[in-house]
Amino acid sequence: MSENLTPTQSAPVPAQAPARAEQPRRDRSEPMFPDGPVADPAGSHHERRIRSFQPRRSRVTPGQGEALRRLWPTWGLDIDGLSRLDLGELFGDPALPVVLEIGFGMGEATAQMAAADPGTGILACDVHTPGQGNLLNLAERGGLTNVRVANGDAIILLREMLAPDSLAGLRVYFPDPWPKKRHHKRRLIQPEFLTLAASRLAPGALLHCATDWEPYAEQMLEVLTAAPEFENTQADGGFAPRPEFRPLTRFEGQGLDKGHVVRDLLFRRKAS
Ligand SMILES: C[S@@+](CC[C@H](N)C(=O)[O-])C[C@H]1O[C@@H](n2cnc3c(N)ncnc32)[C@H](O)[C@@H]1O
């Protein structure tokens, strides 16, 4: 370009970016939310294990951040894998049946279910920090005393922290579909997961899954049907009609917009 300029011409001077106000840099050794959720609380990235979630760095809005700082000490639980949970103590009511929801995302559906059924406690688990802040805000606004927000990998929660037969139900709505074949091993609903989940569910408790990814729906039906600890609530051995208590979730809405078919699976933990 410069070789085409005559000696009297000069190259255009790029417009200078306006000087930016100096932002104080965050000291990364300091936790972002001192009284809030801890990143990877169980230190489970040291464990050689396949993850069912995608590590994401999503921006936390000021409102979510404020909720994480203020409400976490009361409603939050870090999945550190170190202590056995007393669910009666956690919810302040030893008689309250508690269901675990794995992967609540932004938590809108969780808050709706908690509001609709105050007689059930929802232990809502996800690794997604903005969603944790969002659900805390929704719980506070709705006065939902029957929700607790757990931060970390649900596998550690089930394996290390929940007592056998302690759950009244398990909900897994629109788990990451991991569509590529080489990622199928990362799907949550697998035989080993079902063995672990069954051991923490009370006999008769429901395992409710939903997905809009047809191949995953087929896989779920196959592995659930083959799991000796579970029985299908549907006499025909197929998918279930969507139960009224499950609200439309955010991921479900996105799937429906793409024309996906949504499948619900309702299985019961057998008596023995
Ligand atoms: C596709 S999103 C669905 C969110 C929500 N259920 C919905 O339908 O809008 C799946 C969520 O599951 C979470 N997740 C996946 N595996 C998990 C695990 N092992 N423990 C905790 N959360 C997990 C992800 O972080 C993500 O937020």
TrEMBL record:
Residues 7-21 have a biased composition (Low complexity). Residues 1-65 are annotated as: Disordered. It catalyses: guanosine(46) in tRNA + S-adenosyl-L-methionine = N(7)-methylguanosine(46) in tRNA + S-adenosyl-L-homocysteine. Pathway: tRNA modification; N(7)-methylguanine-tRNA biosynthesis. PROSITE patterns: SAM_MT_TRMB. S-adenosyl-L-methionine binds at residues 101, 126, 153, 176. Residues 46-59 have a biased composition (Basic residues). InterPro entries: SAM-dependent_MTases_sf, tRNA_(Gua-N-7)_MeTrfase_Trmb, tRNA_methyltr_TrmB_bact. It holds the Pfam family Methyltransf_4. Its EC number is 2.1.1.33. GO terms for cellular component: tRNA methyltransferase complex. GO terms for molecular function: tRNA (guanine(46)-N7)-methyltransferase activity. Keywords: Methyltransferase, S-adenosyl-L-methionine, Transferase, tRNA processing. Substrate binds at residues 180, 212, 249-252. Catalyzes the formation of N(7)-methylguanine at position 46 (m7G46) in tRNA. Belongs to the class I-like SAM-binding methyltransferase superfamily. TrmB family. HAMAP family: tRNA_methyltr_TrmB. This is tRNA (guanine-N(7)-)-methyltransferase. It comes from Streptomyces morookaense.
